[in-house]
Write a structure and sequence with these properties.
By secondary structure, this protein is of the alpha/beta class. The protein has a domain at 28-103 and 114-120. It has helices at 3-8, 13-20, 43-63, 80-92, and strands at 28-30, 68-74, 98-100, 104-105, 108-109. The strands form two sheets. A three-stranded parallel sheet has the order 1-2-3. It has a two-stranded antiparallel ribbon with strand order 4-5.
């Protein structure tokens, strides 16, 4: 498999499924590749792109239930309120099993105070 062929499986689901067929009952968990949406667009666009990508993964889960056994949500982490809403939507409505969080958000570590919620 050459360099180009390796990366075509990121968006060619029929090809990806053919590759894993010889491995019997193996399934995959879907996630979105890098870069994180908050690194390339502002908060409003990031929220929309996250919704679109999550809806697409949900479609793939329905279309290929044996091959794609779960998905983890893409979140617009430059808008924490939108991220919380999208996490809830994807888990409760779309049946996702978790969320994807990168090690930093726009260059800030996850331990930054602005990412913590006050639960008073």
């Amino acid at each position: 498999m050459n360099h180009h062929e390796k990366f075509t499986t990121l968006d060619d689901h029929e090809r990806r499924i053919r590759i894993i067929e010889p491995y019997g009952d193996m399934g995959q968990v879907l996630s979105i590749t890098i870069p994180p949406v908050e690194e390339i667009v502002g908060p409003e666009e990031a929220a929309e792109l996250a919704r679109i990508s999550n809806d697409e993964m949900a479609t793939l889960l329905v279309k290929y239930p044996q091959e794609y056994i779960a998905a983890i949500a893409n979140l617009p982490l430059n808008d924490i309120d939108a991220s919380l809403k999208e996490a809830e939507r994807t888990i409760k409505e779309l049946g996702f099993k978790g969320v994807q969080i990168y090690t930093s958000i726009q260059g800030k570590p996850l331990s930054s105070a602005e990412f913590f919620l006050c639960m008073n």
